[in-house]
Amino acid sequence: MSGRRARAVASGLAAVALAGCTDAAARDGNGTVDVVTTSYPLQWVIEQVAGPDVAVTNLVPPGGDTHGFEPAPAQVVELAEADLVVHLSGGLQPGVDAVLEQQPPAHLVDVAGLADLDGDPHFWLDPLRLADVARDVGAVLAELDPAAAEDVAARVAEVESTLAALDEEYATALAGCRGATLVTGHEAYGYLADRHGLRQLGIAGIDPAVEPSPARVREVAETVRAAGVRTIFFDAAASPATAAALAEDLGVTTDVLDPIERVTPPDDYLDRMRDNLAALQRGLACGG
Hints:
The protein has ten helices and eight strands. By secondary structure, the protein is an alpha/beta fold. GO terms for molecular function: metal ion binding.
């Protein structure tokens, strides 16, 4: 564990301990521990490691806009009253960042300190980074509810195994793609690209709401021609207009990648990750 992640886990454990929020003290009148998450990937990973006595609520409704989400007054109260809030700070959700800065909850785990971010918040697109977070948040949950610690440890081991297997699926499928250029609507796939030796080039930057400059579009077009790129990927939750127009001009195809910020049941994180892998296999200029 890196020094930064170790400090983040220690901070989360200290917040729980200092509040005396353990076992029965952490439970509501129904005998459950209430955990509030602020984005879908965090909801998914907490649900994998939490025991049956943990109630997990995600502030953003299924299919909702993670980036533009603004908590309603009732949700501000929900954050304040939760036994534990799990959040990713740093700009993915500016509206939630502002609320938590103004009214810090008693027990907060900031995943930004667990995932070793380098400016891109989309760490969950690398399954092994998500496994690290599962393990570290599991340690905080075990401290919050010691009676369930053994159950939490078993669930952590299971999700680590699942995510390692998913990473191996990617590694096997993309083995022939190392060095390929991955052109995306915006730069949400850096961790995935780094893990598998791809070169990400986003038409827009990390924030999909910022329109790319004409100079950036020209740069991408030049790279597409020079690198023999055959597919431009756009985000499932964003307008494909820029990517589609550029692809038409260059005579290449388009396909969809999902940053897995908006997920509607029955789909889940694993489904969307496998959809992304299938799209990469179809669209990357590698392996045939």
